[in-house]
Write a structure and sequence with these properties.
TIM Barrel; 14 strands; about 15% strand; 8-stranded parallel beta barrel; alpha/beta; 13 helices
Length: about 400
């Protein structure tokens, strides 16, 4: 109860309700592959500071979902890869998972979707490939038995590597080896009304070929744009081109009008190894700051301008235990101590006094009852000392930076 009171108070202090402000909701990925993260009630303050009312987890951590009870945030939770074959072979396992991970938190915490595995169709495990759709169907059936399908969607996130080509966007198609699994999966999404999720990172394209890829094009900044001769559409940024490539591939599979596309991950690292071009705080600030402005404006892509694109930024925190190149550990908007990883030119709260530390699995522990939100002379609206408020509303009014590396 104490945690819920702290959370409710923090949300009340930090910012007005998004619906009242008329701004679109921003999504944030709350990864926890770290041993030094603060407890979830501290994370809640930072999420509210960026006006993120949609949160995506990679598991269904009870301590996180419980901490957000009554917050109004909509959660997408994850069923991990290791459980996919089990649900596919044993439908009762799906019912047990729903009872253990979903039912205890409803309705106090809003859970709107479950992702089954992550980027499964670009893997090489044939058991996983064959198990994905049966696992999704089993989970959907378990939710149906609990009368939850109108509230909780079942989907899965894909890498852009499911495409055989992505440029021009109108010519994109799914890989031939993926299509036997993708086609029935699209049918499931269309039938159940669940969204198609894609993890899209323009950073990877720039990193691979910085001499030929226009930095302004990938950072949502003014540029000449890239035309698609087949459609006559001109793309002012790579993210929109990537999304419309997915849209074309879905349409080519005859499910285009029935399936919504959402960007389940996108972001830019603030630090990387020597051979990771563009991984700087300045570029991360430009990418995410401009992305926030795009979300705030409610714009769709050139191929679907009337459909505001729902985006989940990766990620809330830098995660020190992620394997791979240095960039993998520097995608966070915030450092684990709650300070901004870089300045996007808008305000963020100063938070101190949380108790507890990471557990080694990326799950912070401790009571967190010492949570403090520093208002400064400007008061609770965030106008005061510090690096400032990371809000979508503020990002919408931010002037595009002119600095070039």
């Amino acid at each position: 109860m104490a945690l819920r009171l702290v959370l409710a108070a923090a949300f009340a202090v930090l910012a007005p309700d998004l619906a009242a402000a008329g701004a679109p909701a921003l999504g944030i990925n709350y990864g926890q592959v770290a041993d030094n993260l603060p407890p979830p009630q501290a994370a809640a303050v930072l999420l509210r500071a960026v006006n993120a009312t949609r949160v995506k987890l990679y598991d269904a951590a009870s301590r996180v979902l419980s901490a957000f009870a009554g917050s109004g945030a909509d959660f997408t939770v994850g069923l991990p890869d290791r459980l996919v074959p089990r649900l596919a072979s044993d439908p009762s396992a799906a019912s047990a998972w729903v009872r253990a991970n979903i039912l205890p938190h409803l309705p106090a915490t809003s859970i709107t979707a479950v992702t089954v595995g992550n980027e499964v169709l670009t893997g090489t495990d044939t058991t996983m490939l064959r198990s994905l759709l049966p696992a999704m169907e089993a989970l959907h059936a378990a939710l149906t038995a609990c009368n939850l399908t109108s509230r909780v969607a079942v989907t899965t996130a894909h890498s852009l590597a499911v495409l055989s080509s992505s440029f021009p966007p109108s010519a994109a198609a799914f890989r031939r080896d993926v299509l036997p699994y993708m086609s029935p999966l699209l049918g499931f999404l269309a039938k159940t009304g669940a969204p198609f999720l894609v993890n899209a990172y323009p950073y990877f394209a720039y990193k691979a070929d910085p001499d030929r890829v226009d930095l302004s094009y990938v950072l949502f900044e003014p540029n000449a744009g890239v035309p698609d001769a087949a459609t006559g559409l001109r793309y002012g940024n790579m993210l929109h081109a990537q999304v419309d490539a997915v849209r074309a591939a879905i349409c080519r599979a005859n499910y285009g009008k029935a399936v919504e596309i959402r960007v389940s991950e996108t972001g830019w690292p603030s630090q990387g190894d020597e051979d990771e071009a563009g991984a700087t705080p300045e570029n991360a600030a430009r990418y995410n700051g401009n992305l926030m402005r795009l979300v705030a404006q409610g714009k769709g892509t050139p191929a679907a301008p009337g459909e505001p694109l729902q985006v989940y930024v990766f990620a809330l925190f830098n995660e020190d235990q992620k394997p791979g190149p240095a960039s993998e550990r520097h995608y966070g908007l915030f450092k684990p101590d709650g300070t901004p990883a870089y300045d996007v030119g808008v305000k963020a709260p100063t938070i101190s006094g949380w108790k507890g530390s990471g557990s080694g699995s990326g799950n912070g522990t401790g009571g967190g009852t010492g949570l403090v939100v520093a208002q400064g002379p400007g008061g609770a609206d965030g106008v005061g000392p510090g690096t400032g408020y990371y809000t979508v509303a503020a990002a919408a009014n931010k002037v595009t930076p002119t600095h070039r590396p």
